[in-house]
Amino acid sequence: MPPPDRTTRLSALRELVLMRFRTFVREPEALFWTFGFPILMAIGLGLAFREKPPEPAAVAVEQGTAAVRYLGALRASADVRVSLLPADSAARALRKGDVALVLAGRGDSLLFRYDPERPESRLARLVTDRVVQASAGGTRPVSVLEDARRQPGSRYIDWVIPGLIGLNLMSTVMSTVGEGAVVHGGAA
């Protein structure tokens, strides 16, 4: 028997691909899990983890302390959400996590009261110190420049979509291998 020519081989390949495609399209659950579920998952996760502006640091200023003189500058800053509280309420808010930092002090000294184990408290301390120093006319001995830009690929969805595509491909391959074993009598 002579070997099949190129046209015959391509025709056989085309028929095999069409048969696999028709078998796949006839299965509504395969269509859903291959195309529908990953799209729904991407939309759901995209909505759940959409980009939001950074939240301002929650800071409490104790009433009757030296920190009250900086209340206006703190309220004017978009990086700080400040509230004026009595000492006991400020301590309770810090303990409960309602605020990340309590600003107090006497005379010319300020007291930053915070929990160093909480990252939001350390951040609030730095942001509040920057606002207070700037409002008091403080200058820094070292000139600092900032280059704050969003880095491509740093969003959550940038990592989820390739993972879903990979999972989808793996699922399709595994279902095709299993289907091939059934069609060909158990030999994959």
Helix content: 40-55%
Low-confidence stretches: none
The biggest sheet, with number of strands, parallel, antiparallel or mixed sense and barrel status, is:
4 strands, mixed
Straight-line distance between termini? 27 Å
Q: Name the average pLDDT.
A: 82
β-strand number:
4
Radius of gyration: 31 Å
H and E order: HHEHEHEEHH
| SS strand fraction | 5-15%
Q: What strand order characterises the main sheet?
A: 2-1-3-4
Structural shape: elongated
Number of helical segments?
6
What is the SS-derived class?
Answer: alpha/beta
Please specify the SSE layout and strand pairing.
Elements: H1 6-25, H2 28-48, E1 57-62, H3 71-76, E2 80-85, H4 87-96, E3 101-106, E4 109-113, H5 119-135, H6 156-183
Parallel strand pairs: 1-2, 1-3
Antiparallel strand pairs: 3-4
Label this structure with key terms.
188 residues; alpha/beta; 4 strands; elongated
Task: Give a quick rundown of the structure.
The protein is of the alpha/beta class.
How would you characterize the overall build of this protein?
The protein has 188 residues and is an alpha/beta fold. Helix content is 54%, strand content 12%. It has a 4-stranded mixed β-sheet with strand order 2-1-3-4. Strand 3 and strand 4 (109-113) form a beta hairpin. Helix 2 (28-48) packs antiparallel against helix 6 (156-183).
